[in-house]
Amino acid sequence: MERRSFLKKATVGAGLGVLAAPAIVHAQTQIRWRLASSFPKGLDTIFGAAETFSKMVSSATGGKFQISIHPAGEIVPPLQVLDAVQNATVEAAHTAPYYFFGKDETFALDCAIPFGMNSRQMSAWVYEGNGLKLMREFYKAYNIVNFPMGNTGAQMGGWYRKEIKSVNDIKGLKMRIGGFAGKVLERLGGVPANIPGGEVYSALEKGRIDAAEWVGPYDDEKLGFNKVAPYYYYPAWWEGGPQLSLYINQKAWDALPAEYQTIVEAAASHAHVDMQAKYDAKNPAALKRLIANKTKLRRFSKDYMQAAYKESQALYAELSDKNPNWKTVYEDWVKFRNDQVAWGRYTEQGFDQFMSDALK
Amino acid sequence: MERRSFLKKATVGAGLGVLAAPAIVHAQTQIRWRLASSFPKGLDTIFGAAETFSKMVSSATGGKFQISIHPAGEIVPPLQVLDAVQNATVEAAHTAPYYFFGKDETFALDCAIPFGMNSRQMSAWVYEGNGLKLMREFYKAYNIVNFPMGNTGAQMGGWYRKEIKSVNDIKGLKMRIGGFAGKVLERLGGVPANIPGGEVYSALEKGRIDAAEWVGPYDDEKLGFNKVAPYYYYPAWWEGGPQLSLYINQKAWDALPAEYQTIVEAAASHAHVDMQAKYDAKNPAALKRLIANKTKLRRFSKDYMQAAYKESQALYAELSDKNPNWKTVYEDWVKFRNDQVAWGRYTEQGFDQFMSDALK
Description:
Two copies of one chain form a homodimer. Chain A has 360 residues and is of the alpha/beta class. Chain A is built from 14 helices and eleven strands.
């Protein structure tokens, strides 16, 4: 601890006297963390949320707590950020928990499952329902303390080389789709492929896959999918409001001063609301550009949606039978989701529906 | 500055050596602010948001920055918190900006206007559109720096002693309704009354008014309106997503150290998302209880909604002609709102609508 430096600063401060802001002098405790993102730097939306978080932490601590943000692949590959935090290779990660459903399907409940919650419902479950408490229990086994940090909102259903007129067109369809949803696609005869973002364009262009979903207009346009597949479907029944998570290694968390723990929590909340806002602000113009560039918007057929819904429920029942972690979290989750949907039917949906009709 | 105290702490810290967390020693700069809320203490939702904010600021600064929260009437009456911040009677306030539409209608655009934005759209405009920038310009004339801090979501349309079957039933209806919306109700022949929350119950019970709107099931149940009016209507066409604001006196803000400014911003964002989550988490069960207690849920008739929409648009056109502040902000606001509604029609509404149908 550099006491001489502190005394020098204090003397200067007292000498000037005219400063508008009182000087805050921290002990010279410099903390440096590394955060591994599962996303590429080019996505200012989703990768940007970790940068927003880090800037705020630095600014709130007068630069004493620095968190460097590393894009997918720089320290570890995108899907290994969980292991990296668990093993303390890095102190933190920003990721979509459903990537890790292969370790335990319960991860998906902290992000999105088919026919799950929308963005606001998910925030309600996590911030004021039992969501955070239940997931914290679950993450203990991975040495992780988690915080919600961002949501994309309901995603688009992806890009297709041919039209999908009914559930029959799913049979044999090779599609890039985020991990957990692939389990439902499979039950409908589809062939899910888990391809990292950077390789999807070429797979679609060369016909190695027939369809690919990523996020929504703004991100999808950047990746250029509209150039190799004309049909753009909605809604993504598998991602009504996928929530991103900030993962922190338990020991790194415990070693933080209490003030810094609170600053991390507040900054994560700021990045949480700001990331959703960024998607909402940027998607409308991107969709207009895509349509102007001949993208053909299509709504998924009712029979396909209903078949996918039915298979999802069957899958959840199976998981509740065989995975006790899933059962614990899902039971709370599904009750909360059902209540949200029931309440939403009245004033929230009533308002949105009127506005949608009025502005047509 | 108490240097002796600092040195003592530093010595103790070094002596222990085994502490997990590094000691952070701040200069002994204690900052105390008073925040005047426009809301009564009993509303844990909306009053609670200021408490959440204040606790977080205190915790993030190791107790150095204390903001005491004062319920409506304790320092100034609920609708005088703007003046109190402007005149530096208090450093901060938590309020619904539309209360001040009598000074300038532009205030309402920072909160809710009839047929405006929903909660998420409003966050998008403020955080990532031009909302915050434009409102900051506007608030300069009031010596105020503003932050978004909370939203109730779409409100219910209030409690009625008699059924409202068409727009004709609005003629002569005496109704407690939040300030700005009364201007539209008036154009439909209604008689708006601006009655503080604490007096609404008795006015409704004694028949001095025919109807009253407050917020939604959880808050309304607390105030007991169901006991004196059987019909509960939706949606509140005048409050699709009213946003609350944190007001800070410009000089108090400028005097804060940069770290504390960032902490205030982050803590306000945390309270922002948490307040909406609280309403979402608590409203469903409250609505169930109200229905079990014989409340009769009713949807406003289409002709009433459409007549109110038409009069709202006429009002906005008049305001754009005579109030340049309104015109500047409204032009940006309306473009953003229209884009949000257009984009929302696809994947967001498609997903919500399917879920609503599936769980019926």
